[in-house]
Amino acid sequence: MKLLQKFTVRDIVFLAVLAAALTVTGVITMPLVMTITLFGVRNAAAAIFYGTFGTIALMKVRKPGALLLTFVFNGAILLMMSPVMFLNNFLGSLMAEIIALAIFKNYENEKAIFLAAGILAPLTLPTSVFFAMLLNGQTALQIVERPLLSALICILTAALSFAGAAIGLKIARELRMAGKLK
Amino acid sequence: MDRFVVSRPIYPPLSILFSFVMLLLGLLISKRESFFFLLIAMALLYLCFGYGRILGKCLLVFVPLSLLVGFLSYLIARQEIAALQMTGRILLLGLCAVPTLSMPPSILTRSLAGLHCPRAITLGMLVAIRFFPILIAETKQILEAMRTRGVRVTMNPLVLYRAFLIPLTMRIVGISEILSLSIETRGFDLREGEQTIFRPVHFTSRDGIFCALMIACIVGAVVWK
């Protein structure tokens, strides 16, 4: 709980509003891919927004746990629709923070922010495999039945996620220049 | 989201637990005959506890969706039983969402505060849930402004970036600044300490009955092959 003491009301509110916006983008994109059962397509659809909003969150609140909190708040809404999506996001953001902080120690460097936000969506893929195994009643091998296609979608997810992170950095820099993001 | 709220919800932590347990159990037994009886038992449980309206709304969305996914599954695999199981699994997702979807956000945060959940978490969850519909309205306004200026909603990344993402982020920053100022002005503090809860949420005998019936459903589903 000491981690939470570093956050101010301003930080928490910003992360929560950003989480709500992230859900809105999900509402727009998810119906398009909802019926596609191909592994990784849903992750790929959300990847660009996860990258963008994850970067903006960390650019404004450069504190360890900011990314995790954003996705916990996002999960609070997702929990009402699908507990699986909540777990997916929670575990993905937790792993992304651990990896980024293990390499860079903090978020002072923009590379740390780019890395954390960029790897988040690809990290939701392994948890998706686990839940897909349960949901579709298949084994992991059956899910990645078409290895080439699955690998391609995983690469696409990573590429979109990092592209989103790059867009997020650009937006954050523009807002900072305009004096909106302190 | 208020359209989904029920007047007498089940104790929020119990609702969340119910969703998790039923989803996992349902997925584990989805190849058994008892799976479809579990779905019926869940629906009956909701009807008995005043969730009928929300159940109806959920089924309105999830029945066609599950049929569509089931049909697609049949087209791909050509196996009737597998398609039926897939239909059931999607229906299960919808049924599991009923208690959590109908939970009023204020009651959820009050019960979490009562369980000594950190204030940062309860505040964030409340803001995220409350501002979800507001941000949908904001997004619509931005899209309308785009149309007014003659900017078409295309998949052109440059257009989406300049005309949609930048204004949306500006609005997020603006809203969060005003909201945090408003919260701080009302004396809200994140420091942990003695706190009072307006209308505390307690575990009632009604919740106890729900819990007992939930356990009966789980036992029945596991024992029944």
How does this model look, in words?
The complex is a heterodimer of chains A (about 180) and B (about 220). Chain A is mostly helical. Chain A has one domain (about 1-170). Chain A contains eight helices and no strands. Chain A has helices at about 1-5, 10-35, 40-60, 65-80, 85-105, 110-135, 140-145, 145-175. Chain B is mostly helical. In chain B, about 75% of the residues lie in helices and about 0% in strands. Chain B has eight helices and no strands. In chain B, helix 1 (about 10-30) runs parallel beside helix 8 (about 205-225) and helix 2 (about 35-50) packs antiparallel against helix 8. The longest helix of chain B is centred in the middle third of the chain and has 30 residues, at about 120-150. Chain B starts with 11 loop residues before the first helix and ends with a helix. The chains are: A mainly alpha (about 180), B mainly alpha (about 220). At the A-B interface, helix 2, helix 3, helix 4, helix 6 and helix 8 of A face helix 1, helix 3, helix 4, helix 6 and helix 7 of B.
Concise summary:
The complex is a heterodimer of chains A (182) and B (225). By secondary structure, chain A is mainly alpha-helical.
Largest sheet of chain B: none
List segments of chain A where confidence is low: pLDDT < 50 over at least 5 consecutive residues. Answer: none
Determine the N-to-C terminus distance of chain A: 25 Å
Shape of chain A: globular
Q: Order of helices and strands of chain B, N to C?
A: HHHHHHHH
Strand percent estimate of chain B = under 5%
The main pleated sheet of chain A reads as: none
**Fraction of residues in helix of chain A:** over 70%
Number of domains of chain B: 2
What number of structural domains do the residues of chain A give? 1
Question: What does the secondary structure layout of this molecule look like, with pairings?
Answer:
The complex is a heterodimer of chains A (182) and B (225).
Chain A: H1 2-5, H2 9-33, H3 41-60, H4 66-81, H5 83-104, H6 110-136, H7 140-143, H8 147-177
Helix pairs in contact in A: 2-3, 2-4, 3-6, 3-8, 4-5, 5-6, 6-8
Chain B: H1 12-28, H2 34-48, H3 52-77, H4 80-101, H5 105-114, H6 119-148, H7 157-185, H8 205-223
Helix pairs in contact in B: 1-4, 1-8, 2-4, 2-8, 3-4, 5-6, 6-7
